[in-house]
Specification:
28% strand; 11 strands; 5-stranded mixed sheet; binds ligand MTE; 220 residues; binds molybdenum atom
């Protein structure tokens, strides 16, 4: 099981909490993926900003482990070699960060979440997933969002192993939700029958985070 140590509150954490309270960046517009590629309130960037709590844990690939546990028939515990031995999938997708930058056409390689689900076989009453990271970060997803067709546990970007600053050895990528749902430095995946809000979700950010509906912040 992943340890639930709380990461420290940084200046960034306090600033982003304040944005949630103020409703910063909300446009009040609704846009649909069919109509426009760029969600409301977002702007395009060509570079790839680094956003995290500032801890950036360095996990050597030979010491990395993925622990999949909870409401599943077959708990999974893979080292990096076992992870790479799973069926490999490639997707090209867009990134939408809640701080308003978006980046198009990111090429990811890794294990699709659907292949992971086939391996661990969640129980019928499982509805939620919590991602636990090596920096103490957590984020929650509904099982159906985790199981999206283009979601994957990525080890490479643009054909190269993922840099530490972007979450290597392995990060989650869930392209249809704001990027805070895409946990970097993935350590464990916990399957639950009840929802359990994560780091940003308990600090004023939306529980689901759909960029097309501009679900930046929680309602209350
Ligand atoms: N483990 C971990 N994952 C994380 C974060 C974090 O602080 N720790 N930050 C999230 C946020 S808020 C964003 S916008 C993206 C940023 O990913 P990037 O640095 O690769 O652009 O990672 C997400 N995943
Ligand atoms: Mo973010």
């Amino acid at each position: 099981m992943a340890e639930d140590r709380e990461p420290p509150e940084s200046k960034l954490t306090r600033t982003k909490q304040r944005w949630a309270q103020e409703g910063r960046f909300l446009t009040g517009k609704i846009s649909r993926p069919e109509e426009a590629r760029l969600p409301p309130g977002q702007h395009l960037t060509k570079d790839w900003p680094v956003l995290d709590l500032g801890l950036e844990p360095e996990i050597p690939r030979e010491r990395w482990r993925l622990d999949v546990y909870g409401a599943v028939e077959q708990p999974v515990f893979w080292d990096y070699t076992q992870f790479l031995a799973q069926r490999q999938t490639q997707f090209v997708s867009d990134i939408h960060c809640v701080t308003t930058w978006s980046r198009y056409d990111n090429q990811w390689d890794g294990v699709s979440t659907r292949d992971l689900l086939a391996a661990c076989q969640p129980h019928d009453d499982t509805g939620f997933v919590v991602l636990h990271s090596y920096d103490g970060y957590t984020t929650n997803l509904a099982l159906e969002d985790f199981a999206a067709e283009d979601a994957l546990l990525a080890h490479s970007w643009s054909g190269k192993p993922l840099d530490v600053e972007h979450g290597g050895p392995v990060r989650l990528v869930v392209p249809h939700l704001y990027f805070w749902k895409s946990a970097k430095w993935l350590q464990a995946i916990e399957f639950l029958t009840h929802d359990a809000p994560g780091y940003w979700e308990v600090r004023g950010y939306h529980n689901r985070g759909d960029p097309w509906a501009e679900q930046r912040y929680s309602e209350d």
